[in-house]
């Protein structure tokens, strides 16, 4: 659990982060959203003390993060940044091994961990380990950046616009990978982005920052349904609000009894995908199957449209 | 196909240089037309080979000292504790560069006597600036996101310096060293005016006895050494840059 209590950061006269308090539950993904200059990155960097707050405290599992020297604290917290920041003079394996070697792990343990992470991110350890970062594609570099951040098995992973430099297709894949990793290791992830779409997709909870203040901190559904002010509403974008809302729910939750013909959809897919598929294929209903292929019922355009309406 | 031509030219130059230093008499017929009144065409007051080795030794010692001091100074002024010393250090190394080596020789002789020492001092001072400025550039232009990642990974200031900032600066530092070495190779010749054993001895002997052959052979040997060392260091620099993933120019 991460408790942020009355954190303020001032640079001279300018207040960058203004009295922010929030509690981040363990093993969840929290996304901090805001425009540039909203203080979201500064807030993130105060958690691992890359920036020291002017006032206020941050507690990690009840312990003040100032109780250990900054560099030791940072070794226990994963950190991934935009443009990955890989060390160009070190191989992929050496990059991933950065924190474990700072912590003094023995060579065998480091190698095992590097291989595990590379395999997990679908990079062949034998082929990619000895390569240099400039020999990789952007998406591969980003994955290595995530692997490096996770190398020392941190409980907390901080990510600053980690997908900002990726093209849309690779970004979607990287987001899926991140969610899978989060499920597997149970890491608490705090991610900064300016993209509300990404926030709604990834976050268990979303913190919206504006001009250094925390404007709203709630679940994605809550934020979509009841934006705290005009700023949050603008950030969501009014035109595709209903679709964002649908993207939060699984098809399995919208199943109605009955039959439908044609190609089906799996219960795990999002309701937004189901609606898109129905509209595109010109059907009013389509069958829903469970992950193992058993028929569960159907989804209808009508049913989905009801779910897309603003919750009362 | 064309890539090996420059290499071949350099190998030829190297072979020619070694041949000249080991068997200068082979080249006597070539240089003879430049002499007058039956003066010797090949320097005869000492071995050219040993002079060349002395010359290189002087440059090597002076440059090594300049590297140690300039790199250490650049590291100091880029640490939080040393930032205040940056303007002072800049002025000091700039003085070293603007002060003419001849003047340094003149001032150093009364203090340390004739011979190699005043030359070493002059070359050391003269060589500081390029190495210092390049190290400074290298250390201060490490890409921000890489420094950020190093901090985020929990490296201390010294770990960042040794594991990230210095290794990434190697190509730029090497460029500074190359510049410094080439300047020193040429400047070392004037050391012979205060009795240092360098190739300048040959040139000075030629000037004193109006023997163009001496001047030419002294100058050509220094020039050949400078070209070869310059190219070798450039190649080293390109290798380093390639390893850093930087595109070699």
TrEMBL record, chain A:
The keyword Nucleus does not apply. InterPro entries: AAA+_ATPase (IPR003593), ABC_transporter-like_ATP-bd (IPR003439), ABC_transporter-like_CS (IPR017871), P-loop_NTPase (IPR027417). Keywords: ATP-binding, Nucleotide-binding, Transport. SUPFAM superfamilies: P-loop containing nucleoside triphosphate hydrolases (SSF52540). PROSITE patterns: ABC_TRANSPORTER_1 (PS00211), ABC_TRANSPORTER_2 (PS50893). One of its GO terms (molecular function) is ATP hydrolysis activity. This is ABC transporter ATP-binding protein.
UniProtKB/TrEMBL annotation, chain B:
GO terms for biological process: glycine betaine transport; transmembrane transport. PANTHER family: GLYCINE BETAINE UPTAKE SYSTEM PERMEASE PROTEIN YEHW (PTHR30177:SF32), GLYCINE BETAINE/L-PROLINE TRANSPORT SYSTEM PERMEASE PROTEIN PROW (PTHR30177). InterPro entries: ABC_transp_perm/SBD, MetI-like, MetI-like_sf. Residues 52-233 form the ABC transmembrane type-1 domain. It holds the Pfam family BPD_transp_1. SUPFAM superfamilies: MetI-like (SSF161098). This is ABC transporter permease. Belongs to the binding-protein-dependent transport system permease family. The chain crosses the membrane at residues 51-77, 98-115, 121-147, 168-192, 212-233. It is found in: Cell membrane.
